[in-house]
Amino acid sequence: MAHNMNELEMLQPVVIKQIQTIYEKNRMVHAYIFDGERGSGKKAVMQFFLKLLLCENVSNNVPCETCRNCIRVDSGNHPNIRQIEPDGQFIKVDQVRELISEMTMTAAEEGRKIYVLHHADKLNVASANTLLKFLEEPDGNVMAILLTEQIQSLLPTIRSRCQHIKFSLVPRHIIMQQLIEQEITHSMAATVSMVANELETALFLAKDELFAHARKTVLKLIEAVRKNVHESMLIVHEEWLPSFKEKSEMEQALDLLLFAYRDIVALKANMESTCTYPDMLPVFKEIALHTTHEQLSNQMQAILQARQQLQRNMNRTLLMEQLMLNLQEGYTFV
After folding, report:
1. Is residue 281 included in any domain, yes or no?
2. 200-224 pLDDT, tens per residue?
3. Would you say 150 and 36 are in contact if contact means Cβ atoms under 8 Å apart?
4. Are residues 77 and 214 in the same domain?
5. Of 46, 53, 55, 164, which residue is least crowded by CB atoms under 10 Å?
6. Are residues 162 and 214 in the same domain?
7. How far apart are CA 276 and CA 259, in angstroms?
8. Measured between alpha carbons, how far is 69 from 110 in angstroms, rounded to an integer?
9. What is the CATH number of the domain that holds 31?
10. How large is the angle between the packed helices 93-104 and 125-136, nearest 10 degrees?
């Protein structure tokens, strides 16, 4: 998770600027929703916001990180901050009642009291309604920060009482950089960062033997398609179908196949930076050279069509045989 200022600004530049402006212009409201996908840095930004609000020596809208309050926020020991996680599947009504009771008591220290609800979409009906009453009539100098990956699951009445701060997806180059720092090869980092948008999942895939095998099988198929239809059918029956038995595995494999053809299209336009498979550049450049834009467009269309047919539960063997014929058409006129 990002902690220092540079990392935060790289991770969520718009959100950090928004929070600094709120602080600088003293436009704090009593409730915020931090809404963003897993891995988008909501917790790290929330920590930054807490420190900014409580720091004793803020400079240029950045907390000092060294005063007593900053240190207590980082260690989770600040008496005026209360953080709630779901108890099992839900945030329960007793948790919210206890929270409100603490927030309405005289603070252990002067100043603002802040409560943070992690996975706020896990509020059940009773706890959501109890929280709503408190949001409608906050008691004293109290602020709420609700973190969620699924804002649509929050009651509309709760959403309307909070200022919505939307987190963007983490830029791909940052995930790649983090993976490379964890000793993942550049080629694998380039591939998994296309499939997963947060570090934890990307790291898991990068170290997963099944994913490495899927990547290898997909690349083998592209080479076979380039040769002839019999070769590609052989790979489908001997390697592809036995490897991707589950629907989700087949979906992922078709996505990986589509990314490969996107690479070829990008290389045709001389754009190497976007590649999912940098280790395949010489092969893909060769394919790009001998394939027209129209053929590549048809091939990508054929993969998208296969993905739709998979959703409709078409027979997988038939689906893949048909796809091989469609991909091969791209080369019959070369």
Report:
1. yes
2. 889 999 999 999 999 999 999 999 9
3. no
4. no
5. 164
6. no
7. 6
8. 12
9. 3.40.50.300
10. 20
Total domains in the fold of the chain? 2
Q: What is the per-residue DSSP string for 206-245?
A: HH-HHHHHHHHHHHHHHHHHHH-HHHHHHHIIIIIHHH--
Tell me the pLDDT band of 333, cut-offs 50, 70 and 90: very low
The answer to whether residue 176 sits within a structural domain is no
Neighbours of 275 (CB within 10 A): 22
Asked whether the whole model's pTM tops 0.70, one would answer no
Q: Which DSSP string corresponds to 57-109? A: S-BTTB--S-SHHHHHHHHT--TTEEEE--BTTBB-HHHHHHHHHHHHSPPSS
- 292's tokens: 């027209």
Residue 24 structural domain: 5-166
**Pair (14, 116) in one structural domain:** yes
Cβ atoms of 23 and 63 within 8 Å: the answer is: no
Tokens of 264: 């070829």
What would the pLDDT profile of 19-56 be if each residue is shown by its tens digit? 999 999 988 889 999 999 887 889 999 999 999 999 99
* Widest Cα–Cα separation across the chain: 80
